[in-house]
Amino acid sequence: MNNYILKTLAYNKQVRIFFMENTDMIKEICNNKNISNTLKTALGKTVSIGTLISATLKGNQRVSIKVNASNSQHKIFADVDSMGNIRGYISDALLNEPLDTINNLSVEELIGDKGYIQVMKDIGMHSVFTGVTDMPYRNIVDDFSYYFKQSEQTDTFFSVNMVYNEDNEIILSRGIMAQLLPGAPISLIDTIKEITFENQLILSNFNDRKNFKEIPHLLFRDIEIVEQYPVQFLCGCSKEFFYPMLYSLNREELVDAYKSEKSIEIVCNVCGKKYSFSPQEIKNLVQ
Ligand SMILES: [Zn+2]
């Protein structure tokens, strides 16, 4: 079990704290793409925040988060459900920007001063809750703490640790989400924040890697692990999903493909899976 969440209660059950290790998932989503380091960091943070938010969901609830940069074509997405299925991706326009252009920007510069967060929560029974807030911190992680305070009136703290090797590949990814429960003193969220900052070394030391299950006890007193479960990258794409994309090709191109007995291959942008459409399938589609 390489990606998982530990749900805990701490400080006399006044706060719930979720601990997440999602290194393998982040490697799968971020490392195998030819994307700039800035995008890798921004995507990794967004996916990690989404993974932590998935731990707040129940039943069939789903959440989609969208990080919108000041450039309206530049967006980063994460979709999660209560079963811990996570997918994350980048808008085509941002993905196709020249590597150097984006690499010269920090995450803060990429987000810019007009960035905003959108959270769509599908709470079942065809009911969707949408929240939008601006991004005063421009670093994604603190902006989501701000989102919860503004939009859901919940004192929440997020922390994401990502460690890179010398080839700029992510080799460790961990995160924490703390949320005060009703009646808790507001100062408790600052206590948790301080303790997390003081213990960055425990969270991000790759060489002397602590067993993740020990970490809650190393950081906080009076903490009890309530639940532990795996989370996983799941794109959820299928061949049917890509038929509309085939339709969007021009008719001549499709006719040409089946007449010359050529298959058409479409690659999923999110997971990299390849789908091949045979000449017969293309013919059926055109006729
Ligand atoms: Zn896919």
TrEMBL record:
It comes from Clostridium omnivorum. InterPro entries: Heat_shock_Hsp33, Heat_shock_Hsp33_C, Heat_shock_Hsp33_N. Pfam families: HSP33. Keywords: Chaperone, Cytoplasm, Disulfide bond, Redox-active center, Zinc. The keyword Chaperone applies. This is Hsp33 family molecular chaperone HslO.
